[in-house]
Amino acid sequence: MVIMTDDKDADDPKIYNNETTSEVEPSQETEADYYALKKWELGFLRQECVNLGLEVFYNKYMARVQRSYLSIFVVLQTFISIAHVVVIVTGDQHPTAAIHPDLICYTFGSLIVWISLFAAFKERLIKAHPWVPYVTSCAAIFTLIVTDIMIPLYHAVVTFMNPPLRPSYASHVIFAIYIFLPLSENYNVIILGGATTICYLIIMALITYRLESDMIIKVTTELIYFLCLNLFGLYFRLINEVAIRRTFLDRRELVEGNLLLKFARNQEKELLLSILPEHTAELMEKDIRVMIEKMRSGHHNNINPHNFFRTGTQWRSINKLYVQKHTNVTILYADVVNYTFITTQLPVKSLVDVLHELFVKFDEAAKEFNVLRIKFLGDCYYCVSGVPIKNKHHAKSCVDLGLRMIKDIRDVRMSRDLNIDMRIGIHSGSIISGVIGACKWQYDIWSRDVIIANKMESTGEAGKVHVTMQTLELLDGEYIYEDGTDKAKSDPVLVKHNIQTFLIVPQFCDDSNYYTLTDTATSSRLSVGVKRKTIQIKKERSQVTRNFMQNSMEQFREIMKQTNVEMAKELDRMPIGKFQFNKIFSTSRHTIQHQSSALPYYSNSYTNNDTISDSRLDNLSTFFMCFENKRWEWLFMKEPDLMLKYSVLMSFIVFVCIFLTQVLDKASGIYFWLVMGLSGLILFCFIPITWFKKLWDIYTPYSSEDLLRIRKPRNTVLRKLYDFSDSVMRSFTFRTIIYLVTICILVTCSLAYLIECNYDIIEKEKDETVHKESLLIKDFCSNSWSVSQCLTLAIGMAFLFLRIHYLLKAVCGLTILLFYAWAIFDELHYIYDNSASMNPGMNSKVAHLLLVVFTVIVFQWIDRQSEYIARVDYNWKRQLLKQKEEAEVTKQTNKILVENILPTHVAEIYINRQLKNEFYNEEYKNVAVMFATITNMDINTDISVENEKSVLKVLNEIICDFDEKLQYFDGYLKVEKIKVAGWTYMAACGLDPGRCDSSSSLGPYRSVSGITRTSLMTNGRRSLNPRTSDLSPQLPHRNNSSTRHSNNVTIVMTEFALELMKVLRDFSIENFKQTNPGLLRVGISNGKVMAGVVGSSKPLYDIWGNAVNMASRMDSTGIPGKIQVTKESAEIIQSYGYQCEYRGQIFVKGRGKIPTYFVNVNDKYELVKSTSTDNVSTKL
């Protein structure tokens, strides 16, 4: 919902002090304001429905609304007929015989109307024969007209009534044509209304006024009255169409918004569940949304992801650790054998292709065997079974998965001719799972049993599944096994925990089954199930692998196609009135439930969701039509009324009609002209007040800078009038004052004709001659029916103002009715005594009163219907506003989450591309990679730590501090956190999208720039400066001791490592007070890497290449408190004037012995500069 506010530019001094010669200036209306204004224009609404393909649905909805109005008409017609008959029967002015024709006509007329209109409620009949509503409407109107005309005609010809009778239901028939009957086209009702007017004018001229000397004048006043009635009806149809089309478009927007919100929520959920199990995701999602909502309530409406946690509540202040303990689980670690060697033999792109193919197969197998993949670390793939859903066969699931992995990698080995194999370790026990850190969240597991499983993998044997006794005992003897490896028997960790190990050897068959067991009975028992699984997986592999981003985009596209389809289902839910009498007459029984059975998946989002309420408002009082929530009521009353100008114009037209009617009836006198003149002046002044803005906007060209901006008047007077015209329509107080003044004027002018009807003069003339008396009455007060007709016009206008409170209009109508009843029966009874009546048995004063009463009742019911639809529409707009707020929160949450799963440019590509069994990758020629492991902090023996969760709490605090340093680590090159593995922090520098190699799969998205990074917490700091692909060869240093502005990735990575060392030192001193604080063991290497997302699920961004492997080895073979680098990285560091110390030849797995270096740092963890006397090591 767009809430329109007063224009703020009116008080801006710059507007009036500008010395330019321009006559106008652009307004500050936004696109939403512009659209909100256009939604009050009928032409725009019609075109919008056509553009959105809603015209067919609108016509169907209008058919329902018209049937609702028709049912009200049938009820009103029945009530009016019964009331009229009762009044005739209870009258005593004529014998009973004289009223029999009237009773017969009314009775049979009503029955014929009932019968003719009954077919209009048959939806199936109308669908088959669209002409039915037109025929039944014409038949009903013809019956009403004939019934109404026959009575005065009969009494004029047969009983010679004097004064002649007048038709009873002229106004009622006109209102029925324009408002109640199911006639969809305006030209149809105009033709029918015109024909009805002609019929009634003829009967007035030939019967009612045939004896009057001024018959032409009185027929002319009747013509004015009927023209005004037709104009009333047409005006109601037009404003009602505006209201209903607005309601219809609002409903569509609500349906679309709800579907999009459903999509956003699903996207958010899938995004979270792609990295986090549901139990952890729900807690984190809830906290993120709560924080965003708190910030919004604190007037942080524009929440940017990069400063989200800077402006909001500190994330870590909530003191939560999102971890849970799980027992009875099995952990599997799998590592690609000979991976380090092939990293030096294969191009990086080919290497990652191999990993992607393997990990896709592993992900599919893990899903089949109900195993949760945790993450992959380079070539290491580890997972767990029994989390988050308990699995009593968790050990078997992991063993089956391990056997499948061995088969899959052997298939890849054969197809790609690579010397690779799989080494797998499995252990059963308990774990703690969750997330740590402030940014780049990844679900992980920790525990002693996790360490044991890792050791089982490293001490295992290629092509076999290495399991512990704890796991083997859970397998129920279903597998053939042998003793474990000698390496396992000598491993310190396994020996310390008394772990006995075994090897399960897969037995492959020719039918491509995964494995068989040598035990015949067991084999036969399992073969059927195994074969069934094989067939199932083959079918799954034949399908296109889809990731969650792809599914989300497909859902989004489907939602956009589905909106109009859902609108067809929504037609039965849309409001048609508080009391739906059409249900009594309709025989159609197709229900919403029946329609809902055909709804697709997305429609469940609102059929079972309370976001969109039913068309009925439970919080709306039945009689008074008020919201039970007083605040809602007040806000509804304050809604702008952009149709006020049309109501004011219509009121002035009604005034002109009343004025002409009374002038033709020879009303005169100074008081009459004074009242009319002053009233006309006031009403005329309301026209420019309400129309000035509209006319200015129409005839003034748009701003050349923005087609959605209107040029406002420059002149001070015109500008104030423009702003006042706008504020009047938006102000409840102003429009209520205009309404009350207008209605008072119209009522006063309607009764102004009676000002000169002086009772004393009439009584004095009565004493002279009877003839004189009759002349006086004719001259001064002879057309009392024109007063009643003018008053019905005023009453009708009282109900046709849109944004005036329903109760106020009802009170005005009732007040006018009571006042006129008092005037008729008491104060001015002598004027109405001799006027024409409707029936021979009816007092003429009662006839006048019935006309006004029936008018009030008709307009009251019409207003109730319109008011109800308006309030339902308002309720929808409130829901839409709430949806937009929820969608905004969801959007912000999604953005924060996305940028903490993948780098921003990668996330954009995943969202906008269709990835079908392919992976996103970027190849970089030079990236610095860092592995930093926290050491020298034996948490397990520290008295301040009592259990594993406390250990994780310490680790979380350290990682959060690292992340905080990362976010504030400014420079021309960004440092990207890759992951945390155990106590190791991995980061890289140089992964800017503009710097990736031309062979990257980034394609047309390579030019992404201006990207800022996001942390999920205040402590997850990252550089916020956008980067470009142009990097100058040499940039000045910030100061003598800082190279932060260097364009070399290795230097920047080294400086960041030193910052982390400082953070760990400060943390250790502050929290543990120990003499030997925690130390960081850092390994850095640089070179060509491939970055991307592999696997078929759980999109995790990672990097691969020889530089990554070497950085890991530099860490694992390093010394706490030192930064160990490769020879190539040391050369770069020394070229920038910093010292490196040669360590010697160190054995590196897969590479043999290679030279390594330590970066020299001082006690303050600063790089040590080389002096002129320093010699570069001869080993370089």
**Through-space gap between termini:** 69 Å
Q: Return Rg in Å.
A: 43 Å
- The proportion of strand residues reads 5-15%
Question: Helical region count?
Answer: 40
Mean pLDDT comes to: 76
Parts with pLDDT < 50 across at least 5 consecutive residues: 1-30, 308-318, 509-549, 589-616, 768-780, 913-917, 940-946, 998-1043, 1175-1179
Helix content: 55-70%
Number of domains: 3
Number of strands: 18
Structural class: alpha+beta
Basic shape: elongated
- Main sheet properties: 8 strands, mixed
Structural summary, described in words:
- It is found in: Membrane.
- Its cofactor is Mn(2+); Mg(2+).
- Pfam families: AC_N, Guanylate_cyc.
- The chain crosses the membrane at residues 69-91, 103-121, 133-154, 190-209, 215-236, 646-664, 670-692, 737-755, 807-825, 845-862.
- Its EC number is 4.6.1.1.
- With 1180 residues, the protein is an alpha+beta fold.
- It has three domains: 24-249 and 631-881, no CATH class; 316-523, Alpha-Beta Plaits, CATH 3.30.70.1230; 915-1159, Alpha-Beta Plaits.
- It is built from 40 helices and 18 strands.
- Strands 2, 3, 4, 5, 6, 7, 8 and 9 form an eight-stranded mixed sheet that branches. Strands 11, 12, 13, 14, 15, 16, 17 and 18 form an eight-stranded mixed sheet that branches.
- Helix 4 runs antiparallel to helix 35 (844-898), helix 7 (132-159) packs antiparallel against helix 8 (170-180) and helix 26 packs antiparallel against helix 27 (670-699).
- It is elongated and about 130 Å long.
- The two termini are 69 Å apart.
